[in-house]
Amino acid sequence: MQPKQSALLSLHSAVLLFGGTALFSKLISLSALDITVYRAAIAFIVLLILLKLQRQPIKLHNQRDYLVAIMLGAIVGLHWVTYFAGMQMAGVAIGIIAFFTYPVITVFLEPLFNRKQIQLKDIISASTVLLGIYLLVPEANLGNQVTLGIITGIFSGALFALRNLLQKQFFSHYSGPHTMLYQTLVACLLLIAFVDVPPQHVSPQNISLILLAGVVFTAIPHALFASSLRHLSATTAGLISCLQPLYGTLLAYILLHETLTLTTLFGGLLVVSAACFETWSITRKKA
């Protein structure tokens, strides 16, 4: 297999696994915070072993980078908690669509980091997302679990967008696995004091699912994604990443028997289309 074909396979595998991560919000019978802590701990151990096997450096370059790692880890921890919580409330398919507002949110956060101006196309994308979210929301009432889940999912997307921009600004000189090593460690350490179910009381079934989530659906896809970028452009990687909601929705339909109404499907299509457009618009300039 040629390097580019192999890289494409790695990228699609990574995106499929990222999409499958959402399933654990329903499969694991623990709170979103508990899932986050245990998933982060397992992912940290696997990433540490991976970097050791590859004889990659573990230490960061300077003290400033450790402070940045703490900041990024705190954001990632909160992002993961709200990510799982949103899907527990709204369902996997709707939750992952709400989260995928992050490419458009990124565009509106970018001026805080550089001098990029908001353009008309970005306002159109934002309007498209708002219309899509409007179609997803069952009623304008925070007492409705689906509505609250959508808001939580959007907040998770905003945290993810912020993490990405901060990482690009202050931490881009480290590899993906190296970056995630510290972020998973910090997320785990910051949240572990709030765990409801201690490790010794986690059921064997939940332990198996947590191991699966941490190893196969967190550590491995991050390694595959980082590896694929050696042979693929940022545009290709960004656009294929937009398949994550599709993969997540299909897996939720197959494994969890989740179904969507036509209105929800149309709203999701608007959100994901805007996400794809903004991702293409951003990454084509870097390719």
Structure characteristics:
287 residues, mainly alpha, 13 helices
What's the number of extended β-strand segments? 0
Spatial gap, N to C terminus: 23 Å
Helix/sheet category: mainly alpha
- Unreliable residue runs: none
Helix content: over 70%
Description:
75% of the residues lie in helices and 0% in strands. By secondary structure, the chain is mainly α. α4 packs across α9 (176-191). The chain starts with a helix and ends with a helix. The mean pLDDT is 88.
Give a summary of the structure in a few sentences:
The protein is an all-alpha fold. It has helices spanning 3-21, 24-27, 32-53, 63-90, 92-99, 102-109, 120-136, 145-170, 176-191, 204-228, 234-241, 244-255, 262-283.
Layout of helices and strands:
Layout: H1 3-21, H2 24-27, H3 32-53, H4 63-90, H5 92-99, H6 102-109, H7 120-136, H8 145-170, H9 176-191, H10 204-228, H11 234-241, H12 244-255, H13 262-283
Helix pairs in contact: 1-10, 1-12, 3-4, 3-9, 3-10, 4-5, 4-8, 4-9, 5-8, 5-12, 6-7, 6-8, 6-13, 7-13, 11-13
